[in-house]
Amino acid sequence: MAESKTKFEEIRRWVSDHKLRTVGCLWLSGITGSIAYNWSQPAMKTSVKIIHARLHAQALTLAALAGAAVVEYYDHKTEATNRYPKFLPPENLSHKD
CB within 8 A of 15, min separation 6: which ones? Predict the structure, then answer.
Protein backbone atom coordinates (compact mmCIF):
# COMPACT_ATOMS: atom_id res chain seq x y z
CA MET A 1 0.00 0.00 0.00
CA ALA A 2 1.42 3.34 -1.04
CA GLU A 3 1.89 6.02 1.58
CA SER A 4 -0.43 8.94 1.20
CA LYS A 5 1.29 12.30 1.42
CA THR A 6 0.09 14.75 3.99
CA LYS A 7 -1.20 18.13 2.89
CA PHE A 8 1.90 19.78 4.37
CA GLU A 9 4.19 17.49 2.39
CA GLU A 10 2.28 18.23 -0.84
CA ILE A 11 2.55 21.98 -0.24
CA ARG A 12 6.26 21.70 0.61
CA ARG A 13 6.88 19.74 -2.59
CA TRP A 14 5.00 22.33 -4.68
CA VAL A 15 6.89 25.22 -3.06
CA SER A 16 10.15 23.36 -3.63
CA ASP A 17 9.33 22.91 -7.33
CA HIS A 18 8.01 26.48 -7.84
CA LYS A 19 10.21 28.69 -5.66
CA LEU A 20 10.15 31.81 -7.84
CA ARG A 21 6.40 31.58 -8.41
CA THR A 22 5.93 31.33 -4.64
CA VAL A 23 8.11 34.40 -4.01
CA GLY A 24 6.24 36.35 -6.70
CA CYS A 25 2.86 35.44 -5.24
CA LEU A 26 4.02 36.44 -1.77
CA TRP A 27 5.25 39.78 -3.14
CA LEU A 28 1.94 40.42 -4.91
CA SER A 29 -0.12 39.51 -1.85
CA GLY A 30 2.20 41.58 0.37
CA ILE A 31 1.93 44.72 -1.72
CA THR A 32 -1.84 44.27 -2.12
CA GLY A 33 -2.36 43.82 1.61
CA SER A 34 -0.08 46.71 2.46
CA ILE A 35 -1.84 49.06 0.03
CA ALA A 36 -5.20 48.00 1.46
CA TYR A 37 -3.98 48.67 5.00
CA ASN A 38 -2.32 51.98 4.14
CA TRP A 39 -5.43 53.20 2.32
CA SER A 40 -7.30 52.99 5.63
CA GLN A 41 -4.90 55.53 7.14
CA PRO A 42 -6.42 58.91 6.22
CA ALA A 43 -3.60 61.07 7.57
CA MET A 44 -1.01 59.93 4.98
CA LYS A 45 -0.45 61.30 1.50
CA THR A 46 -0.94 58.92 -1.44
CA SER A 47 2.76 58.91 -2.32
CA VAL A 48 3.69 57.93 1.25
CA LYS A 49 1.09 55.12 1.19
CA ILE A 50 2.62 53.70 -2.01
CA ILE A 51 6.17 53.98 -0.67
CA HIS A 52 5.19 52.19 2.55
CA ALA A 53 3.43 49.45 0.59
CA ARG A 54 6.53 48.93 -1.55
CA LEU A 55 8.78 48.76 1.51
CA HIS A 56 6.52 46.23 3.24
CA ALA A 57 6.37 44.09 0.11
CA GLN A 58 10.13 44.32 -0.30
CA ALA A 59 10.71 43.10 3.25
CA LEU A 60 8.26 40.23 2.70
CA THR A 61 10.04 39.32 -0.55
CA LEU A 62 13.43 39.22 1.17
CA ALA A 63 11.97 36.94 3.85
CA ALA A 64 10.46 34.71 1.14
CA LEU A 65 13.79 34.53 -0.72
CA ALA A 66 15.53 33.59 2.52
CA GLY A 67 12.90 30.89 3.05
CA ALA A 68 13.43 29.61 -0.50
CA ALA A 69 17.18 29.47 0.15
CA VAL A 70 16.57 27.42 3.32
CA VAL A 71 14.32 25.01 1.39
CA GLU A 72 16.97 24.68 -1.35
CA TYR A 73 19.69 24.06 1.23
CA TYR A 74 17.57 21.45 3.01
CA ASP A 75 16.74 19.68 -0.26
CA HIS A 76 20.40 19.48 -1.27
CA LYS A 77 21.51 18.49 2.21
CA THR A 78 19.06 15.57 2.34
CA GLU A 79 19.56 14.70 -1.36
CA ALA A 80 15.79 15.00 -1.82
CA THR A 81 16.19 16.34 -5.34
CA ASN A 82 18.50 15.90 -8.28
CA ARG A 83 21.48 18.19 -8.28
CA TYR A 84 20.88 19.10 -11.90
CA PRO A 85 17.99 20.96 -13.51
CA LYS A 86 15.35 18.91 -15.31
CA PHE A 87 15.90 20.72 -18.60
CA LEU A 88 19.53 19.56 -19.01
CA PRO A 89 19.96 16.31 -20.93
CA PRO A 90 21.68 13.63 -18.81
CA GLU A 91 24.36 12.88 -21.43
CA ASN A 92 25.78 16.41 -21.01
CA LEU A 93 26.22 15.94 -17.26
CA SER A 94 28.92 13.26 -17.26
CA HIS A 95 32.52 14.27 -16.59
CA LYS A 96 34.99 13.52 -19.34
CA ASP A 97 38.60 12.80 -18.44
Answer: 22, 68, 71
List, for residues 32-77, the tens digit of each pLDDT value: 888 888 888 888 898 988 888 889 888 888 888 888 888 778 777 7
Cα–Cα distances in Å, from 84 out to 19, 87, 89?
16, 9, 9
- Distances in Å between the Cα of 58 and the Cα atoms of 7, 23, 64, 65 are 29, 11, 10, 10
CB proximity list for 41: less than 8 A, separation 6 or greater: 49
